[in-house]
Write a structure and sequence with these properties.
The complex is a heterodimer of chains A (255) and B (440). Helices cover 38% and strands 28% of the residues of chain A. With 255 residues, chain A is of the alpha/beta class. Chain A has a single domain, classed as Rossmann fold, CATH 3.40.50. The chains are: A alpha/beta (255), B alpha/beta (440).
């Protein structure tokens, strides 16, 4: 589904990604872990199409297409979704209106009919249950005045409505208490099926107790320095990131 | 450009003609007000950009043309032609080129004791209700446009709501311009709201023709103790027209005044809005939205006089400026020595959609009391790229994302209008204007 080859990206002349290689197949969940400043969020942003980052080298294939050639909205319509680490507040635009515009843009792109107000409302009510979201948040302006937990839940709610093929969760666990974390993770798990894939970007292993990854990758200084199964996450939780870094440097020195 | 003396002579000459056309119909009292006003106008002359209050707004395009007061004339308009300008309410007074049209107006049933009529008819039939208030709040002393309006006072909307009466559905004052080049229309409105009474007024200024006319309007409002007024204004004159207005509000104890203004049509638009909080615990809320395209100049000048303690004022003025348009906001807040516990908040936000659009914004706080809370803030900017990206990352294209955000910026003001039908009308106008701006 997704193939990242030797991806380099920079912002304001600072190289953040230094050659990422990653392959994600349908049905898989990948966790990207790493210390602060390792480039995890940058990777998520570059995949979503944030224009402030400049890709200097490498390529990204998404369902056979050159992802980097697509505008952010085209990526979204092709089924890519990023749950923001810091969801943006949009005063004056109701959550429903926003989501309906987004969903209909996606549906139109797929050659499907746009949903009318009634059909949309039915869908929305059903999907809200997945993340146990309060109905009052529907008619409020997008994220405005939402608590940290409500914002993150709203992201997963958007995901539930848009049903992406590839979801990238950028630090979705940050700022969540354990109950909210469980609800968000449950939502993600219920949306999982054999034809979609998920990339979970996180600093802590905690979320991975609930969203169990098939693969774990450790990002340090803009490179994947180690990959493994879910057990790798436990080792990181226990021992921190330094040993992985040391191991990688040692390997580099001996090579 | 005309010499100063020339336009003074011109309007003096127009006044003499106007006086003759009146045929002694009005009372001596009103006519002495007119005479004093034309004399004051001759003394003042039109302001120049050297006047502090007119620094950003050059009215020489008005001063250099010879405008003729609209004279009494039968109109042949049909109700069908009004349709695009209507919203749902049973009460409507229609003025064509400033002159009341009985055939086009309609009034639903309203509570006993309420008087709703044209000002000309109120001057004839119920002068005792009018004269204690007319020309008492809008002063001719320092505003030449008010003086000019007062000199040619003849018609406009008049409402009197006695104590304790709730006049629920809005009264629509529809000012239609079907004016030829160089016509001057001088609407004069007066609203008197009794103790604990309630009223909702909508003034709209719209055009049937695209010509260079001048609307010079004055609205006076008297709010007695614990009364409430929502006063909405939709200013959508033709793009070649000039529109200058003054609204002067006097508020007694515990009264509540809300004004929502949408200003969008005309080559030059200047709205003066002044409220005097002349009784404790009174409150005034002024909201405004400017939509500028082309080379429009749209100016909002507000003045709130906190004359008594424990009063509250809120102001939110927003502008969306495209192309080479020019917006002005000047918000004066005056807190007198005795006006302790004043709570005043002023916000001005501008969205610039083009590099050539300009906003001049100036808060003017003059505070002579010490125990007060006064805040003001102004922001000027482009659309927030974070917000644009958030929308795009969900599948909404850039153009639509920008439209949604621009519309939301405007909605902040438009949503404050209570009447749903008027609100949708305003939303549609905002939408059309924003789209039109983008097409050009």
């Amino acid at each position: 589904m997704l193939e990242i080859k030797n991806l380099h990206a920079s912002i304001n002349g600072n190289e953040i990604l230094n050659g990422i290689n990653l392959k994600v197949n349908t049905g898989e969940i990948h966790a990207i872990m790493g210390p602060n400043g390792s480039g995890k969020s940058t990777l998520a942003q570059v995949l979503a199409g944030r224009e402030s980052y400049v890709v200097t080298q490498g390529e990204v294939l998404y369902r056979g297409k050159d992802l980097l050639d697509l505008d952010p909205e085209e990526r979204a319509r092709e089924g890519l979704f990023m749950a923001f680490q810091y969801p943006v507040e949009i005063p004056g635009v109701s959550n429903t209106y926003f989501l309906k515009s987004a969903l209909n843009a996606v549906r139109k792109h797929k050659g499907m009919d746009e949903l009318d107000a009634m059909e949309f409302l039915q869908l929305v009510k059903q999907r809200m249950k997945l993340v146990d979201m309060d109905e009052s948040l529907l008619n409020r302006p997008v994220n405005e005045g939402f608590s940290g937990g409500e914002k993150k839940r709203n992201e997963i709610f958007h995901m539930a409505v848009l049903e992406p093929a590839l979801a990238i969760l950028d630090e979705t666990d940050s700022g969540l208490d354990i109950d909210a974390l469980r609800i968000v993770a449950d939502g993600v798990n219920k949306l999982r099926h054999k034809d979609n894939a998920t990339i979970v970007v996180t600093h802590y292993q905690r979320l991975l107790n609930y969203i169990v990854p098939d693969f774990v990758h450790v990002l340090v200084d803009g490179r994947i320095v180690k990959s493994g199964k879910k057990e790798l996450a436990f080792a990181l939780e226990e021992k921190g990131y330094d040993w992985v870094k040391a191991e990688f440097e040692a390997a580099g020195a001996s090579a | 450009m005309k010499q100063t003396a020339e336009y003074r002579e011109w309007y003096k000459g127009r006044f003499d003609l106007f006086e003759r056309s009146l045929n002694g119909e009005a009372s001596a009292e009103i006519h002495s007000i007119r005479k004093a006003a034309i004399a004051r106008f001759s003394e003042l002359g039109f302001p120049t950009t050297k006047h502090e209050e007119w620094r950003f707004t050059n009215v020489s395009p008005i001063a250099s043309r010879e405008f003729s007061p609209a004279m009494e004339k039968k109109n042949s308009l049909t109700k069908e032609q009004l349709r695009p300008f209507l919203f749902k309410t049973p009460h409507r007074l229609v003025f064509v080129n400033g002159q009341y049209s009985d055939a086009l107006s309609s009034l639903g049933s309203f509570p006993k004791g309420v008087t709703v009529s044209s000002l000309s008819s109120a001057l004839r039939n119920t002068p005792a209700l009018v004269t204690p208030h007319l020309a008492k709040y809008a002063s001719i002393e320092d505003n030449a446009f008010v003086a000019l309006n007062t000199a040619f006072v003849r018609d406009g909307g008049f409402v009197y709501v006695p104590d304790g009466i709730q006049f629920d559905e809005p009264l629509h004052l529809l000012f239609l311009s079907d004016a030829g080049e160089g016509m001057m229309i001088s609407p004069r409105n007066l609203m008197i709201v009794g103790k604990r009474a309630q009223l909702s007024i909508v003034e709209s200024y719209v055009a049937l023709t695209d010509s260079n006319y001048l609307v010079n309007a004055v609205t006076e409002v008297s709010l007695d103790e614990e009364s409430t007024l929502e006063h909405d204004k939709l200013q959508n004159d033709g793009m070649k027209a000039f529109h200058v207005s003054a609204a002067n509000v006097r508020q007694k104890r515990g009264s509540n005044y809300v004004s929502n203004t949408l200003a969008m049509g005309g080559a030059l638009v200047r709205n003066n809005l002044a409220a005097v909080l002349d009784g404790e615990h009174s409150e005034c809320t002024l909201n405004g939205l400017t939509l500028g395209t082309g080379s429009q100049l749209i100016d909002h000048h507000t003045a709130i006089d906190h004359a008594t303690p424990n009063c509250t004022s809120h102001e939110l003025y927003k502008a969306i400026l495209d192309q080479k348009s020019h917006g002005v906001f000047n918000g004066k807040i005056f807190v007198r020595k005795d006006a302790q516990k004043t709570d005043a908040k002023q916000t001005n936000k501008t969205l610039l959609l083009s590099d050539e659009a300009v906003i001049d914004t100036k808060p003017q706080l003059e505070i002579f009391a010490d125990d007060v809370k006064c805040t003001h803030g102004a922001t000027v900017g482009q659309l927030d790229e974070e917000q644009v990206f958030y929308l795009r990352s969900r599948g909404i294209d850039r153009t639509h994302a920008r439209d949604i955000l621009t519309f939301a910026f405007a909605g902040d003001v438009v949503n404050r209008v209570h009447n749903e039908s008027l609100r949708s009308q305003m939303e549609a106008l905002v939408n059309d204007k924003l789209n039109e701006g983008r097409r050009n």
